[in-house]
Amino acid sequence: LPQSPSSQSTIRTGLLLILVGQGGTPYVPRSERPCPSARPSPVTLRLTNTLTRRVEEFRPIEPGRVSIYCCGVTVYDLCHLGHARSYIAWDVLRRYLSWSGYSVTFVQNYTDIDDKILNRAAEEGSSMEAVSERNIDAFVADMARLNILPADRMPRATRSLDAIRTLIGELEAKGAAYSADGDVYFAVMKHAGYGK
């Protein structure tokens, strides 16, 4: 938009996010509403249930509490725009649920052992740990720059290897997992309630 010379001096670099509601009405920040002390009622949250393939009203399993698991990054390289889009979406949902009065526990993992990490370490003449730590530090900095809340817990795959091996052994013993090309996969067809 054209600006007068006087207004240009007050413009600062930054990000402007305008939320538009139904009917094209812009969202007005709480601090600028006529009565900032009156908290508006949350709207009904409706999400797509991928099991039923329908949009349904959100109802937590445990009243007043919500647990969210968000698949984290495999730290062989720096984050990209796709990571940012995904984590911003999860952050908006998390903040909305918290604002709506739910107690939210948000867990996101780091995959810090993977063939891509091992290959990157070999290319650099480095170690898996060095590659992972460098990219975890960069991830934390990138998310902070985007003002994304840190997860309540960020487990690392390398700190759970014994439990992972035990679980894989149990699944294989029950015939619920199979090996292919050096990897082990969960046999989803063997579990009637898979996805529920």
Please describe what this structure looks like:
With 196 residues, the chain is α+β, with helices and mostly antiparallel strands. It is 33% helix and 14% strand. It has five helices and six strands, in the order H-E-E-E-H-E-H-H-H-E-E. The chain has helices spanning 5-8, 81-99, 115-124, 128-145, 161-173; strands at 46-49, 54-57, 65-70, 103-108, 177-180, 183-186. The strands form three sheets. The chain has a two-stranded antiparallel ribbon. Helix 2 (81-99) links the parallel strand 3 (65-70) and strand 4 (103-108). Helix 3 packs across helix 4. The chain is flat. The relative contact order is 0.10.
Total of DSSP H or I helical runs spanning 4+ residues? 5
Arrangement of strands in the largest sheet: 1-2
**SSE-based structural type:** alpha+beta
Low-confidence runs of at least 5 consecutive residues = 1-18
Q: What is the terminal separation in angstroms?
A: 50 Å
Fraction of residues in helix? 25-40%
What is the gyration radius calculated from CA atoms?
Answer: 22 Å
What would you call the quaternary organization? single chain
Number of strands: 6
The rough form would be described as: flat
Major β-sheet profile? 2 strands, antiparallel
Indicate the proportion of strand residues: 5-15%
Mean pLDDT score, rounded?
84
Q: Could you give the order of the helices and strands?
A: HEEEHEHHHEE
Secondary-structure blueprint:
Blueprint: H1 5-8, E1 46-49, E2 54-57, E3 65-70, H2 81-99, E4 103-108, H3 115-124, H4 128-145, H5 161-173, E5 177-180, E6 183-186
Parallel strand pairs: 3-4
Antiparallel strand pairs: 1-2, 5-6
